[in-house]
Amino acid sequence: MKNLNSIARNFAAIALLSAAAVGCASTANKEGTGEYIDDSVVTTKVMSAIFADPDLKSAEISVETFKGVVQLSGFVSKEANISKAGAVASGVEGVTSVKNNLHLK
């Protein structure tokens, strides 16, 4: 009986650890915890870089990041600033690609 209880406890512990590991893993549509934190850092760096550029500072630009892919959306006042914002975002460490969905006001 002692062995049976020990086996049951070990099985329960393994099942609990497996469920926890799967809960933190990433999938194609969902980030894992570490990836979410990394993407938050990338988003902050991109937003800082855009704000530091005098031409883009006053633009209405939103930045979202998923697994290193940055999506820019919003509005800029000059056509040239659309590509400039994309170039600024591409130059940030951690950015794997940029989806530029900016529009002219």
Feature tags:
3 helices, about 100 residues, alpha+beta, 3 strands, three-stranded mixed beta sheet
Identify low-pLDDT runs: none
Q: Percent of residues in helical segments?
A: 40-55%
Provide a count of the helices: 3
Helix and strand content put the structural class at alpha+beta
Number of strands: 3
Q: What topology, given as strand order, has the largest sheet?
A: 1-2-3
Largest sheet: 3 strands, mixed
- Rounded mean pLDDT is 80
Distance between the terminal alpha carbons, to the nearest Å?
75 Å
What does this structure look like?
The structure is a single chain. The chain is α+β, with helices and mostly antiparallel strands and about 100 residues long. The protein is built from 3 helices and 3 strands. It has a 3-stranded mixed sheet. The longest helix has 23 residues. It is elongated, with a radius of gyration of 22 Å. The model has no long low-confidence stretch (mean pLDDT about 80).
How is this structure best summarized?
The protein is of the alpha+beta class. The chain has helices at residues 2-24, 33-52, 79-90; strands at residues 60-66, 69-76, 97-104.
Task: Set out the fold topology.
Layout: H1 2-24, H2 33-52, E1 60-66, E2 69-76, H3 79-90, E3 97-104
Parallel strand pairs: 2-3
Antiparallel strand pairs: 1-2
